[in-house]
Structures are given as C-alpha cells and as structure tokens.
C-alpha cells in the first residue's frame, strides 16, 4: 500500500510540474516580440537609450506592447494607461522605490485597497505586479499625499513601491485590475 500511494504522489507531482511548465511556456509565447525579460547584465541596444519624441515627451513610447496595458518607464519615471484601442487614457510621473522591476512583461497579480507600506507610510490603491530579490513591486499612493515622503527615505529597508499622487492612484486602481498587462520599459 505504501508503494502504491507514493507512486500516485509521484505521478501527481510529475503531472503538476508538467502543467506548470506548459503554462509558463504559453505565457512566454504571449509576450510581444522584444518585450521579454532581459538579463540584468545585458547591455541595452543603442535604440533603447534613444530619446523619446523630443516634441512630445509624454507621448507613448514605441515598442511598449499592444492592447490594453500599463506602461512603466524606469528611466523616465512615467506611467501610461493604454486602452485596447492604443489610446493613452492617462499618463503621469511617479516616484520609484529603491528596487526597480526588470524590463519585460508582467501582469497585475494582486491589489489592496489600503495597507501600510514597507516604509511605514499608509498607502492606498496598491497594484502589485512583480518581485525582485524578494521585494514586491507595485504602484501605490500615500494617503497623506506628501510629496516630500518617498520610499527612498527608508534607510536600509529595500522598497519596491512606485508612488503616485492620490488622483493618479485612483486612475490606476480603476484601470489596472487583476490580469492587466504591465510593460516595463527603459
């Protein structure tokens, strides 16, 4: 009996691992060309550092994906909320935390209406989409909306909160529901 049950467990484990591998492969296959995660030490192409449209610095960058999505530029500290018809619904500046997400495609994985941030500041409309080195990364707005307070003021605590103003946080909350793609670009 013990041999039979351990064989069943081994079979179930193998089936589960196979299913996870298949789902991971399918998810990777849906990432737009050129938007997959890059290695941290990979050198960017010259075009990746080219300036955006100098006449329209808030214009949606090219190669930022297709369809409904949140686009986050780690170099520009800017977010674009893009609808399914490639129209920018809103764009705004943000204050990044100490840990940036890697470049690539993500999806909104969890949300919280209001929680204490890693830095102890009460935040609302938290939209999480990535983890890096054990640090959770997501968008949020401080409830006191104090522009002087940033997550980089926290000393030795590594934070991944990307802070928005409260109005921008409200817009993000309405737009970025579970499963909405988040494209992180240079």
Looking at CATH, the homologous superfamily of the largest domain is L,D-transpeptidase catalytic domain-like
Tell me the radius of gyration. Answer: 19 Å
Helix content: 10-25%
Number of helices: 2
Structural class: alpha+beta
Low-confidence stretches: 13-51
Could you describe the largest sheet, including whether it forms a barrel?
5 strands, mixed
CATH architecture of the largest domain: Beta Barrel
Give the topology string: H per helix, E per strand: HEEEEEEEEHE
Shape: globular
Q: What is the spatial order of strands in the main beta sheet?
A: 3-2-1-9-4
Average of pLDDT: 78
State the domain count: 2
CATH topology of the largest domain: L,D-transpeptidase catalytic domain-like
Question: For the terminal residues, how far apart are their CA atoms?
Answer: 57 Å
| Tally of strands | 9
Strand content: 25-35%
Give the C-level CATH assignment of the largest domain.
Answer: Mainly Beta
Keywords:
30% strand; 9 strands; 2 helices; alpha+beta; 20% helix; globular; L,D-transpeptidase catalytic domain-like; five-stranded mixed beta sheet
What's the SSE blueprint?
Blueprint: H1 2-29, E1 69-73, E2 78-82, E3 88-93, E4 104-107, E5 110-116, E6 122-132, E7 135-142, E8 161-164, H2 166-175, E9 181-185
Parallel strand pairs: 1-9, 7-8
Antiparallel strand pairs: 1-2, 2-3, 4-9, 5-6, 6-7
Provide a compact summary of the structure.
The chain has 186 residues and is of the alpha+beta class.
Question: How would you portray this structure in words?
Answer:
The protein is built from 2 helices and 9 strands, in the order αββββββββαβ. The strands form 2 sheets. The protein has a 5-stranded mixed beta sheet with strand order 3-2-1-9-4, covered by helices on one side. The protein has 186 residues and is α+β, with helices and mostly antiparallel strands. The chain has 2 domains: 1-30; 64-185, Beta Barrel (L,D-transpeptidase catalytic domain-like), CATH 2.40.440. It is globular and about 40 Å long. It has helices at 2-29, 166-175; strands at 69-73, 78-82, 88-93, 104-107, 110-116, 122-132, 135-142, 161-164, 181-185.
């Amino acid at each position: 009996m013990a041999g039979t049950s351990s064989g069943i467990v081994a079979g179930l484990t193998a089936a589960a691992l196979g299913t996870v591998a298949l789902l991971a492969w399918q998810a990777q296959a849906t990432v737009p060309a050129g938007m997959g995660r890059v290695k941290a030490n990979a050198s960017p192409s010259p075009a990746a550092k080219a300036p955006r449209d100098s006449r329209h610095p808030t214009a949606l960058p090219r190669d930022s994906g297709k369809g409904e999505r949140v686009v986050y530029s780690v170099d520009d500290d800017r977010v674009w909320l893009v609808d399914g018809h490639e129209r920018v619904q809103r764009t705004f500046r943000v204050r990044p935390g100490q840990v940036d997400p890697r470049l690539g495609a993500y999806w909104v994985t969890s949300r919280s209406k209001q929680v204490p941030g890693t830095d102890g500041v009460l935040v609302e409309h938290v939209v999480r989409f990535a983890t890096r080195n054990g640090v959770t990364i997501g968008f949020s707005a401080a409830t006191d909306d104090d522009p002087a307070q940033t997550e980089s003021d926290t000393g030795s605590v590594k934070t991944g909160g990307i802070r928005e103003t409260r109005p921008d946080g409200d817009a993000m909350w309405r737009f970025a529901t579970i499963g909405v793609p988040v494209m992180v670009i240079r």
